[in-house]
Structure formats: C-alpha cells, structure tokens
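Trying the structure run again after the queue cleared.
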Amino acid sequence: MNESKAFISGCKGLSLTVEERSFFAGERPWGFILFGRNIGEKEQICDLVAALRDSVDNPKAPVLIDQEGGRVQRIRPPLVQQYPSGAAIGEIYRRDDQMGLRAAWLLGRLHAFDLMRFGITVDCLPVLDVPVPGSHDVIGNRAYGHDPVTVTAIGRAVSEGLKAGGMLPVMKHMPGHGRTFVDSHHNLPVVDASLEELKRVDFQPFAAMKDEAMAMSAHMVFTEIDPDNPATTSPRVVREIIRDYIGFDGLLMSDDVSMNALAGDMTTRARAIIGAGLDLVLHCHGIMEEMKAVADVVPVLSGDRFRRARAAEAAFRQPDGSNEDTLRAEFNAMFALA
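Done. Tokens:
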C-alpha cells in the first residue's frame, strides 16, 4: 500500500465527485477536513466521511473539523446543539475556576460524543491564542481569556475532554495568534512584540501543552524572529521557536494554505510550508486545481514527518464510559445559570 502524502484536503460538496475520488486515490492525503459546505444531514455526513476514507483505502484516515462553539462551529443545530464560545467558558472560569475547568472538559467531551457519531476523529481545538487589547476579532471571543494561565488551564481541560471521548485535539495557532490586528484570512498580520514578551505571554500555553499530538501553525510574521516570513513558512520560527523553545515534537500542520496572509501561488505556498519544516499542508476549499498543485509538491511522509504522523495516529484512545445525557444536562445547567 502506498504511503500517505504530507497534506490534508477538503472536498467541494456533500458527496465526493468521481474526480475527487480518483484524485484522493492517486495522491493519498494523510487526512481530510470538513466545512459547513459539507454538512447536510446525519446519514449524508456519515456517508461522506466513509467515502473519504474509502478513497484512500484507509478506514482510520483522520477526518478533521473546526468545532469550537460560538461562531466557529461547522456542525450546527438541529444536528448538534449550539455550544457557547470560548469566552463564555472563560467567564465561568473567572467566577469559579473549578467550575470553569469542568465546563471546559465537558465541552470537549460533548464535542466528542457529537463528532464521533459521524466518524469525525480530530477537532481543531483548543484555541490557545492570548488576545491583546485592540486586537482583531478574528480570535476575539474564541479565546478563553486574556492571560496565558487562564488560556492554558481551559485549553488543557478542553483537550482532555476531547481525548476522553476518543478524539484528538489540534492546538491552534502555534506559536500564538493573539496579537493580530488584521484578519489573516485576508491580510498578513505583523507582530512587533519583543521576544521576551512573546515568551512571557504568547508562547506559554503552547509550551505548557507541548506534549499534545497535533498543532496548527499561525500565518503571522514575528519581526523579532523572522521579519520576512510568517511562522507557517519560516524555517527559523519552526526550528527555533516551535521545535526548540516551545519543545513541540508533535505533528505540525499549517493553517489553510489558501488564506491570503500567504504570498505566491499554491505551488509556491505549499513548497514554502514544507521547506519551513511543517509536517502537513492544509488545503481547505476543495478547489481541484489548487489541490493538484499542493499534491504535486508535497512529499510522501518519511523521516520525522512519518514518525510524527504515526505518533498522532497512535494517540487515539477508546472513549471513556461517560453517560452522555448526564454530562449534557450538567453542562447545559452551567450555562442556564451563567
């Protein structure tokens, strides 16, 4: 069986086209990601997830989604309940830290109940970014708090809830997206904070959770480290900050390669991401020409990339024996009182 290649791919609609099936079979992405455009009803989602895995002949191929709560929640009512934002969890934590940590764990555990029913196994959560005053709301109320201690505590609890439910979390956006004053979907954020300040605040949650299996990069320039390249395409940020200072040796995927914070065409971007030392290129939009351009330049997983991918695959565990109805009632009561 051919080995997987170093990318994660989206698809265009509610079901796979003949062209998509053929492309995935030939190029063998390591995993897949779903967005709102891929979400119809329960059986359709289950069928799509199964078809994605079948296309690469891997019944355990990771299938990812951004299911945070608040405004970033790809699967919504009536399929699943609407969950509160990260900031709402943070509000409970500020009033009662133990209750806040319980709410955070429950959020992760309930996401796992929801997503595992569809066959989705990886949630791009927790958000470990620490916003600063005046920063762009691209993070905004997705953040758990405005200090690294709060963000770390809640982020760890959310991650533990996801893992208790049999899912893998993805920390984002490494090494920190909290200081952005523009939306990296549209423009390139530039951060001029000192390295000492970044180490004191932005990098702290990621360093504290460095042993997690997966993380997603930030499309941001840190001028004190590499004034010419965003973290996603910066060998220096990846090597000196993410791998060495933070100490993260897990599977590092890019944020979406299609985002306008990155320069150049899709081939240039994908090459730069791999060249910087990231393990996987994430392509989200399901545009076939772009998917082909990415697949043409990413390598087959080997060496450290292969090792980290296998470690992530081995990190899945069996769900605990929690009773969903009991946990859901407990969680919803917290927000009825909030």
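The chain has a mean pLDDT of 95. Worth checking whether this holds up in the mutant runs.
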